[in-house]
Amino acid sequence: MTVGGLRSFVARRLLLGAAQTVAVVLLVFALTEALPGDAAVALAGDQPDPARIAAIREAMHLDRPWYERLGDWAAGLPQGDFGTSLTSGRPVGQYIADGFGPTLLLAALTLALLVPAGFGLGVLAARHEGRLVDRLVSSVTLAVYAVPEFALGVLLVTVLALKLAWLPPTAVGYGTDLLAHPAALVLPVLVLLSRPVCSLSRLVRAGMVDALASPYAAHARRYGVPGARVRYTHALPNALAPAAQQLARTVDWLLCGVIVVEALFVIPGLGTVLLNAVAERDVPVVQGLAVVFGVLTVVLNLGADVVAHRLTPRAAVAA
Amino acid sequence: GGGTDDKADSGSGGTPKRGGRLRAAFAGGGASETLDPHLANLFADVARAKALYDKLADYGADLSAEPRLATQWESNKTLDRWQVTLREATFHDGSPVTAKDVLYSYRRIVDPEQTFRAKASLEPLDLDASRATGERSIEFVLKRPTAEFPNILAAFGAYIVPENATGTDFGRKPIGSGPFRFVSFAPGRSAVFHRYDDYWEGAPHLDELEFVVANEESARVNALLGGQVEYAHELNPTTARAHEGKGQIEIVRLRNSAMQAFCMKTDRAPFDDKRVREAFFLIADRKELVDGALSGAGVVGNDLFGKGYEYYADGLPQREQDLDRARALLKQAGAEKLKVTLDTSAVAAGFTEAAGIFRDQAAKAGVTIDVKMGSKDSYWSDILDNGTLCCYRSGAMPIEAHISQRLLTDSTTNATKWRHKDFDALYEQAQSTRDRTERAAVYERMQRRLYTEGGFLIWGFADWIIGTARTVKGVETKAPANTLDWARFDKVWLA
Amino acid sequence: MTDTKSLRRHTGRLSLGLAIVAVPLLLALLGPLFAGDPGPRAVSFTLGGGHWLGTDFVGRDVWGQVLLGGRTVVLTALAATALAYLVALPVGLVSALTHLRRLEDVLMRPLDVLLAVPSLLLILLVASVFSPGAAGLALLVALVNVPDAARIVRAAAGEVAARPAVEALRMQGETWWRIAVGHVGRSILRTLAADAGIRLTGVLYLVSTAAFLGVGVAPDASDWAVMVDRNRTGLFVQPWAVVVPALLIVALTTGTNLLFDAVLEKKGRRP
Amino acid sequence: MSHADTVAEIRDLRVEIDGRAIVDGVDLQVLPGKVTALVGASGSGKTTTGLALLGEYPPGARVTGDVRLTEGGLVGYVPQHPAAVLNPARRVGALLHDIARPQARHLPRTERRTAARARVLQAMLDAQLPDAEALLRRHPHQLSGGQQQRVVLAQALLLGARVIVADEPTTGQDALTKSRIVDQLAAVAARGIAVVLLSHDLDVVQALADEVLVMRAGRVVESGPVERLWLSPRHEWTRRLLEAHDAAPREEASAGQPVLEVRNMTAVHDRTTVLRAPHLTLNSGECLAVVGRSGSGKTTLARCLAGLHRDHDGEVLLDGTALPHSLRHRSRAQLAAVQYVFQDARAAFDEHRPVVAQVARTAVRLRGAAEQAATDEALTTLARLGLTDDMAHRRPAELSGGELQRAALARALLAHPRVLICDEITSGLDTVTRRGILDLLAGLVRDRGGLSLVLITHDQETARLAHRVVVVDAGELVEQGSARWVLEAGTGLRT
Ligand SMILES: Nc1ncnc2c1ncn2[C@@H]1O[C@H](COP(=O)(O)OP(=O)(O)OP(=O)(O)O)[C@@H](O)[C@H]1O
Ligand SMILES: Nc1ncnc2c1ncn2[C@@H]1O[C@H](COP(=O)(O)OP(=O)(O)OP(=O)(O)O)[C@@H](O)[C@H]1O
Ligand SMILES: [Mg+2]
Ligand SMILES: [Mg+2]
To answer: Is residue A202 classed as helix, strand or coil in its secondary structure?
Structure first.
């Protein structure tokens, strides 16, 4: 694809992306609305005095029809106003801003390690295809993938933090400034890494095995192109398209699916904010997060598609 | 359950030492938390409110009201006017706690525009008619005779704030009369308080107190084990078993903290027939429920609320499983091959487990129970009017409060739909009885009735489990959750 | 290497995969026959007392639960994974093979919307609105896997679909089905197998988490994945209730993948 | 007769697959600065022998004999199907730089880039690839078939190999380019590099080779210096090979009805126009040759007609009705009517299925033939093209280049097309086989009346068989006219 073609592709996808984000928000809104109970009920908790619930509902303006609430909320968006939380009355923007830092830090760190580790393992296995190393990498990644995160978390915490006391077991009390306590990040990042590394390396391996067996790889080898170069610049790009898709999905997962890790290590990130907001039926907060996730997903998937298009240039010219 | 009542009493060892910072981990409410004591809802909220504020009275270990900011209360003959005297205490800004502050606080709580939690508890007060009779004395006028007036002063969330304190003050710099002063607060993450030297009950031992939020139980335990906190609230029985007596941390079990029950709607089939209710009482194998659902951390119940509390009718025989009689009763009621749906949800520890266990027990009596998982966020309101059978639990409160909130015709959260004029009358009688023993007799009659045909199948009382570092001393081990001495950090010190 | 040697190695791998997968599969299939009557409950998370592997979170015998708990896991996870591909494959293949951008957008973009909602949240939300049963859960879990799987199929197939071989097939008036499945699908088999192995595992745990949230199977169902999830609190007191079912799941997924790999290798590659 | 200075030597090589020898008892000496040519029928084992020098054999092959290379003897390889060895994800520039880089390693770091680049540009020039700058930025699929071939040749030249195995290096090249490649290879040899030339093109062999080996069915039937072989071939087979070389031009045919008509066609690749065809007709029973330099747009024209290239304006009319631009929208009858045989036969086959199954599908899909009947027809057609039953049941990877080309032709023929577009289908065939194929096609045109041929070719012999010739030059249709006229008077081919 030429530069021009790529540009129009991206522009079109971004336009579509706006529509997708709206769809995400509507979907999330509809689902949260359809959930049993609302913010008033959630707030009332185990004191569900109907009169009190009615009063709370009124105080939160929940008695207004849904389209008015949604409309008001949407009207604020162009000004960058995500609305205010029902439960606390604080601006949603602040919720997102507070939670974004830690989550982004975790995601970025994990990603920075994931890419080399995932690709490295995948390439390593593919390189020794069918031999012991490959068997080992393949089965271990699969087995690790089959171990649930919490179990891995428990294991790592018990050994590294509690028994050996090398690392702090949680990030309790460190607030959002996690960078100041790098040791507290090690375990969460390890746990976060464990599964995506497995899935990524398996996909990379699969693609690499095919690519390394191709005539063009043989040709490059024949011509004395160094082994590493054949692997990384010749074979890898051809194995990359599915891996890039997986990676985009992983990033997305990292940003919103870190819930387990955030809870396990007490990191006040977006996952925690989201869980609490859903539990409290704090619709504006949920919607605000939906916007963030929607935009992120659109951008990341677009990125993955661009990568896929660049790496499989032929794909653009199917008859 | 396997208890360690005597040895867990880590508190009274040695002389208190001053200084230090204690970090306490609680499950919290996320980024929406506030320090407004009248909004306090979760245990974390209450613990923080308790550090910053005081109530006029609070509950002792048997859930009877003990004086706090109030030094004494006197009623008239008809029990509808109460004279309360305040002690000499000051807020953190140095100003004295006065009758005006008290009236302001109570009026704020019942403000019709607002929806503060204690509103219902303060309902018997006629605050328009009540007035300050002096700097530190108040005359409360009540809408009806109320023998348990002190319970109102001790009500959940009835904290005293300075006159004219508003919502924004609580957000920025809350001022109370409690043992600790405000330092900083990050919602959903941490709150730091400092010792208030002029506290009326004597300054706390600790210099500083930090509340941190950790929703996941394992995180609280790990933080405790790793020395990141010194106090972890609300642990699993299994965790407790794993660490009890290992010397790493101390486990404190607060007995009788949480009533565990199944709740039958007495106004609809099949539970409108009291024989069916009794059959269900007899189906439950309470030991198995306590062992299975509470992992043994608790004691069996006798279908009555408030074991160990003031007025508890402990003379009634302990109910045991009797499947034959249960079957016979069901047959009499024409309810053989009964099918019921049991609502449950992951809203409280042990709920889903108890539901599963009870389902299996009922099956042995020929009753088919279909366990239905509900949303945990709206569970309490869902089960209030819907369904026929559900899992239920309650924190500690006086038996009187339990009755008034849940068992009277006009109770707001009457989950068993127990509506009986004669029962209401008994309650009124109790409330207008001055003499304590006579009152106790009335309560006993009411409880007897509930024991034979009530809607609450109360199968156990769960311990509330707390873990502390070994250096932490002075943690009260007898106080059920929600009472005065629970989460009371002014009496705690670091050895 | 000579043919016989590679053949021997290949059969070795095949039988290793089979052996690993046989344990959980046999347990799943035959376990319920041997489970017998559940005895009385004991205190939760204890060892000893006639319980081989101790008791679980509600005081049941863990071994009994292990015997009972395989069928649902195997069935729901396989069904959900299969269902996910049932949708993802056509969608991914159609959009890889079409030259209509519009059609591709119609197929793929709505799936991106699903991607933007965390899967657990989606399950939670949809489940509390529609309260599905076990079959519904399999559907739901499949649904949240579709966007992801479809993208991977699309990416892998896109490259193959542009080869002259596909043009030649079109020239022959070959049916869409033969082109898509017979040629493109077959060429991306290795990538698909790698993805499927991972997905199967993910699905297993999603089902169990969903169970805890009140979707699908009962929260105390006899189900390996549910066991792993629900017994975690007792890990330090009674590890078997977690370790045994977790190992069985690991065996199931690893074995399946070894089998996949072995079968794929047999196809052989010629330069 | 072993020389002391051979750079590579093969002795008594035997390659056996499934008990069938595809190369048997071949001896070969590769001398520096000499061109050794292997000629012979398609499928006679040339590629297999050539690959043996690289130490590569078909999978599962049993190899006996001896292949010896002098130390450090790098062997370059220009395969028969260049597309396969060009990494689709890398640009041409990157593919060449990869090889140039190690050679610039001895230079100081700063100069490496420029040095490597200079080498790349030189190699492209040597390989007759002008306009290097533009080509370097393209991906392999954006090149014409001939351009791809020259890129691979450029790679081999860059490598600085001691031996270059060139497998059909001139197929798909126009006469001018071909002669330049010949010059280039001669220059390579002059530099002392040994060239092993596997070719069908006897002109090229005659011009280049020092030593010739004639192969048939895996055996060398005759070998010797080229002059001697050409003058006095000893073996019958050699004689036939050389004889078939001369073909008589075809007589003019009477023009039939127009079958295919092109109007105002402009085809673009990525917004650049690569072909303009204002008007072109093809009459029934006519054979039209399309000639022109490599990269001039011949394949593009063919692909437009076949509906494989959608990006064009204008119309393609079949019997006066417009054909849809994309073959996806063509009916089965339309598909059957216009068939296209791909330039790169290997890439056009599904590697997983046996050839015969793929060939037979055409009859099943486009003519509704029964499965069995289709297979039978496929086998007979393949047999007429010289492919045995056994070969037909193999998978594409197990066939030689020329065999595959014939299979591809068979696949198209099974549609019983009215217009058959052949893109360089004889490029991979020896003279004898080519002759056979062309005779077969001519026979079809004659007998089946309706069949019209479009032959895209660089081969004058082939072009001479056409009734009419179209010359494509830099995307323009410059000359159309009778074959004799264009070939003799026209300038198209030679410029
Ligand atoms: N996908 C593509 N993108 C951009 N340019 C292309 C693409 N395919 C072909 N071209 C260019 O279009 C021109 C015409 O190509 P075409 O394949 O029609 O040539 P040809 O006449 O068949 O050459 P040859 O004899 O070498 O096969 C060439 O310059 C080629 O580089
Ligand atoms: N992998 C294989 N398995 C079985 N047979 C094979 C395999 N590769 C090649 N052959 C057969 O071996 C013979 C020689 O093949 P080779 O490619 O060396 O021929 P060639 O002389 O290069 O022919 P062409 O001129 O058509 O390219 C052919 O008949 C071919 O069918
Ligand atoms: Mg060949
Ligand atoms: Mg061409």
So the answer is: helix
User: Sorting pLDDT into bands at 50, 70 and 90, what band is C271?
Assistant: very low
Q: Which two tokens mark B163?
A: 């006159």
Q: What burial letters (b/e) apply to D439-451, b meaning 16+ CB within 10 Å?
A: ebbeebbeeeebb
B423 contacts: CB under 8 Å, gap ≥ 6: B407, B408, B446, B449
> What is the spatial distance between Cα B291 and Cα D409, in angstroms, rounded to a whole number?
80
Ligand 3 centroid–CA D46 distance in Å is: 6
Domain range list for chain C: 2-268
Residue D171 in tokens: 């197929």
Ligand 1 atom 31 nearest Cα: D143
Contact yes or no for A58/A301 (Cβ under 8 A): no
Cα B446 vs. chain centroid, distance in angstroms? 21
The DSSP symbol for B216 reads S
Q: Which residue has the tokens 């304190």?
A: B165
Q: Which residues of chain D have pLDDT under 50?
A: 1-2, 249, 490-495
Name the DSSP letter for residue C104: H
Chain A window 77-136: which residues touch C at a Cβ cutoff of 8 Å? 130
Interface of C with D in 138-167 (CB under 8 A): 159, 162-165, 167
Q: Tens digits of per-residue pLDDT, D407-425?
A: 999 999 998 888 999 888 8
Which residues in chain B are closer than 8 Å to A281, comparing Cβ atoms? 377-378
Q: Is a pLDDT exceeding 60 seen at residue A50?
A: yes
Whether the model pTM is above 0.95: no
Angle (CA) C51 C55 C58, round 5°: 145
| Ligand closest in space to the Cα of D392 | 2
CA of D458 to the centre of ligand 4 (A): 10
Partner-chain residue, chosen from B33, B226, B380, that has the shortest CB–CB distance to A168: B226
Task: Specify the amino acid at residue B294.
Answer: L
Q: Give CA B268 to chain center in angstroms.
A: 29
pLDDT tens per residue across span A105-143: 888 888 889 889 998 898 888 888 878 888 888 888 878
pLDDT tens by residue, C193-222: 878 877 888 887 777 666 656 566 666 777
Domain ranges for chain A, please list them.
95-282
* CA separation for the pair C77, C196 (Å, rounded): 11
> Nearest-CA neighbor of B471 among B207, B248, B220?
B248
Tokens of D8: 């590579």
Domains along chain D?
A: 3-245 (3.40.50.300), 258-488 (3.40.50.300)
3-state secondary structure of B256: strand
Judge whether C104 is closer than 8 Å to chain A, CB to CB: no
Output the CATH code of domain C2-268.
1.10.3720.10
Neighbour tally for A42: CB within 10 Å: 25
Q: Would you identify the CATH topology of the domain A95-282?
A: MetI-like fold (1.10.3720)
Structure tokens at B264: 């039958």
